[in-house]
Amino acid sequence: MRRASLLAAALFLVAPLAQASTITIVNKNADPSTGQCDATFNTGFCDPAPAAPVGGNPGTTLGEQRLNVFREAARIWGELLPSAVEIKVDAQFTPLDCEETSASLGSAGPLTFYRDFPGAPQSGTWYPKALANQIAGRDLGSSLSDIRARFNSELGQSGCLTGTFFYYGLDANEPANQTNLLTTVLHELGHGLGFISLADGETGELAQGLPDVFTAFIYDNVSGESAIRPLQVAWLGSNTTAFGASFLGPLPRLLVTAPSSVAGSYAIGLASFGPSLTVAGVSGPVVQALDAADGAGPATTDACSPLTNASQIAGKIAIADRGTCTFVVKARNAQNAGALALLVADNQAGYPPIGMSGSDPTITIPAVRIAQDDGARLKAELSSGLTATLGLDASKKAGTDGAGRLLLFTPNPYSSGSSVSHFDTSATPDLLMEPYSTRNSPIQVDATLELFRDIGWFGGGGAPSYAYLLTSVARARGGGNTAFYTSDVFVANRGTSAATYTMKFLGHDADGTSGPERTFTLGAGQAATHRDVLGSAFGLSSGADYGAIRITSDSPSLKISSVTSTPPPSGPGAFGQSVPALGSSQLVAAGGSATIVGIREEDGKYRTNLALANGTTSALVVDYGLVADDGTGLGTRSVTLPPLGMTQLGRIAELITGTRAVSNATLVLSTPTANGAFAAFASLIEFHTNDPATLLPAPSGSGSATSFLAAAARSKGDGNSYFTTDFFVANRGATAATYNLKFLNHLVDGRSGPEKTFALGGGKAATYRDVLGSVFGLSSGTDYGAIRITADSSALVTSSVTSTPPVAGPGAFGQSVPGSTTAQLVTGASPATIVGIREELDVYRTNLVLANATEATLDVDVALFADGGSTLGTLRVTLQPLEMRQLNKVAATITGGSSLKNATLVLSTPTPNGAFAAFASLIEFHTNDPATLFPQ
Questions:
Q1: pLDDT digit string, tens, across residues 884-895
Q2: 430-441: buried (b, 16+ CB within 10 Å) or exposed (e) per residue?
Q3: CATH number of the structural domain spanning residue 605
């Protein structure tokens, strides 16, 4: 069971399995005889109350939106878990436990368990139905569904976490007063799929005297199994332990140094506001905060009013009791009194401290929560000169025991529905299977998938199979006698165990199922560089070879990209473009669509080519249509791709319209083929230079109301070049949208940057040539920065092309950068990897662009790794609120040198609630042409 306490949630997704599961949601709010909603059955999933589409959820009634969220969660888990047997979930909305300040969001679990079935890995052990069916390869009880799920229909109403409702968007963009339903459903389905113990939490009694597969992995660090031993009960599975070692951050702690009677390390819960804790920490005496009794309550130790002992608090660590005012109010009052930090002692017994919600960019001191018992012990010693350090213990991982095993939630007293069958709340970053919903966590399956591997979802220790698709690679002669397209492919293993991957070449315009393939092994943390991949990996020597590459692996942690360039193999020439590989969940699938903005076809100036790759082993039809900025359809066409086939369609706009007079248009791609899935991108090519800008597609439902364009320019370059940025917005929704563009200049606090608001009708697009000049009126030759896009719709698709011709005419071309949605930002729990970093004197350089997406100061950690896995160096960059910054020659800056043929960048932030956009530009020295390296 998941609960909320005025807090909410968010998805880090791995590439899905080649063999997926079908998870079906059975609507138990409907008429049981017909399965349909009607005037009598009109609650829950059948609620006819009107609702506006939100966050990629197209439903127009409350019931439709609820069902869409459940189906999306079912799709996500279905793509991650392998089973040939359909998994049925009986689901409904119904009243659940509620209080004014907390509520049960939902509960789910297996409807039945099986033991000693054919193929059972352990005899005398209970397995939940979905897992037992998967192992047995058949439905062991076809008359029963696998999972029952019940969700709170009263949430947000008076007396039930009043005013805090479910958010029905399919993204992670929930407002402060809403709880992300998608994350909550993912969590509850996790219980139904096997994250659950059958043992009696209070007595330890086993079901019919036999263990279940989950309980078999529980380990008590003290003595025997115990459900009421906080921070002592851990998970034994090796896969989960290995995942935690790479995913979890340093242990936040309160280290009391005096008096000796209470000296030691204390667990803390982090705040969503204020600065990040550091290894050095904040040290000082601890003093009780005192304030006047007020309307927030009679207490004088809760810091709900301005402190009356400010002179004693100044320069020290304040401690206050949890009370009826917000955590932000307490922290602000402590800060105003001059405190170095704030400790908030809980008022509920037995629970380890959880995080504190709230937002206030003016708070500059760290604030944490400590358990009630710990608070009482420490306050009793204040007169003895209590001193402490609040910071991070870099020798330990948050949420693990001394052996690095992930801790389970075991508070004292026992918490029905929460104890044991959850990860502990001390994990940092937050994990999906923690008992409480917490705001600003990324949407993630994280360690849950590894726990499922431990209990047997992927066979007896066997690894699952993951698929990636690289849309285009080449070893082909171009125009003239010197150009020769070659593709370099980069593979980085960011997992904690070795990975095996097989690359299969899918030739163009042919059935790719029998294409040549090669298998490689890559150690944990290592990377591989395949220069001229079609020649070096597949031995192809033809001057006309091009196609796609399909990569299958036993690891979901591979980061794969390519750079195709046009110099001859013997030396430099015109540079090319970078294309990232896509996981199966990122392909354009049947029932969905993808949008590519900025399509251009002008005779003697620009042309646009479209690359398509079939991700399935059956023939597939791709429909593609062109739409003018005013919403007028310019034409549609179709192409059939053979199984695992790739094709390139030259001059796509002319192919559709029959003309070369399209200055800007939007391309919409889809497939009518059942179970079809394909990858795509477009190349916008400048006529005089033949240099491409890679236009990446935006899948339907992937937008967010806020997005960030990490870089835009109106700036003089070398010689006669003058960087300018064209910006594109397409409204793929059916209704009009209003959006605000705000310019965030480089190296400054961007909160006061200029902004302008626009309206755009449904199905229409807008093109802003030289956006910094035409929208913001900037005339300086040194203006560059980021753009924040804030809209009242999540249906907007945004992108840009920055080019280097002088204002008066064509010249060298540039690169395309799409807008980063909220889900695509880099956060503490969702670090990003950029492969293919290169720094060679007079040959290549790499620049890194960062844009702070928050209105608070943000730390960005940049780590550089060699192919062998060794760390080449690290760099911490502190960004002002909404600041954009470009780090030139980032590899040389980190290493102090300038010779690096290949490396991998890993970007993250230790700042709570921190988020930023990023990309890198790999620049060839002779041409100054960039290839955009996208973060993954």
A1: 999 999 999 999
A2: bbbbbbbbbbbb
A3: 2.60.290.11
